């Protein structure tokens, strides 16, 4: 059984470890090694993770089974003062993908969103990450729009923004 719990500040190092194990595998055919390294440093430095929690209102969830951490997600309810919950991050260790961990994390966030009066989930996914786009589509997300975000250091994020309407469930 997959257990999902809110991560403490002390557990953000687990988030960081999972990200560093997941990103090189997930993005090796999509991003350059330099961009992967830049983005890991930018988003998953422990101080950056703490700032996301303390200043930006992100909540991190950790998924584990039989005492082993398998993945994480970060979300924000009422994002941008809208009745929408944003899934900022969701990564599952490569060897454990396909076991329902991602779906369990999204279902947990879906329930939290509904409890907080949000009618929609949304997330960004790299437009070349076909495996993730296929997964999100399968569980009920649809493409809302695309955006290109300059993240500095000569790098961009070329994303599909996907949404799931919670009022139709």
Q: Based on the structure, what is the oligomeric state of the protein chains?
A: single chain
Helix content: 25-40%
- Briefly note the CATH topology name: Aminopeptidase
Unreliable residue stretches: none
* Helical stretch tally: 5
Domain count: the total is 1
Strand content: 25-35%
CATH architecture: 3-Layer(aba) Sandwich
Radius of gyration over alpha carbons? Answer: 15 Å
Structural class: alpha+beta
Keywords:
36% helix, 7-stranded mixed sheet, alpha+beta, Aminopeptidase, 169 residues
What does this structure look like?
This protein has 169 residues and is an alpha+beta fold. The protein has a single domain, classed as Aminopeptidase. Helices cover 36% and strands 34% of the residues. The chain is built from five helices and seven strands, in the order βαααβββαβαββ. A seven-stranded mixed sheet has the order 1-2-3-4-5-7-6, sandwiched between helices. A hairpin with a 7-residue loop joins strand 3 and strand 4 (84-92). Helix 1 runs antiparallel to helix 2 (33-44). The longest helix is centred in the first third of the chain and has 16 residues, at 12-27. The radius of gyration is 15 Å and the shape is globular.
Short synopsis of the structure:
The chain is an alpha+beta fold. The chain is built from five helices and seven strands, in the order E-H-H-H-E-E-E-H-E-H-E-E.
């Amino acid at each position: 059984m997959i257990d999902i719990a809110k991560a403490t500040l002390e557990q953000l190092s687990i988030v960081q470890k999972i990200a560093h194990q997941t990103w090189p595998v997930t993005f090796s055919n999509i991003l350059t090694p330099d961009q992967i390294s830049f983005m890991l440093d930018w988003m998953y430095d422990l101080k950056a993770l703490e700032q996301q929690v303390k200043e930006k209102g992100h909540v991190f969830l950790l998924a584990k089974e039989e005492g082993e951490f398998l993945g994480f997600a970060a979300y924000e309810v009422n994002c941008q003062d809208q009745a929408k919950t944003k899934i900022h991050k969701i990564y599952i260790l490569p060897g454990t993908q396909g076991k329902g961990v991602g779906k369990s994390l999204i279902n947990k966030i879906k329930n939290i969103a509904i409890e907080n009066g949000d009618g929609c989930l949304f997330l960004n996914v790299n437009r070349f990450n076909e495996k993730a786009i296929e997964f999100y589509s399968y569980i009920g997300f649809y493409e809302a729009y695309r955006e290109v975000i300059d993240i500095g250091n000569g790098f961009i994020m070329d994303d599909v923004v996907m949404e799931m309407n919670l009022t139709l469930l």
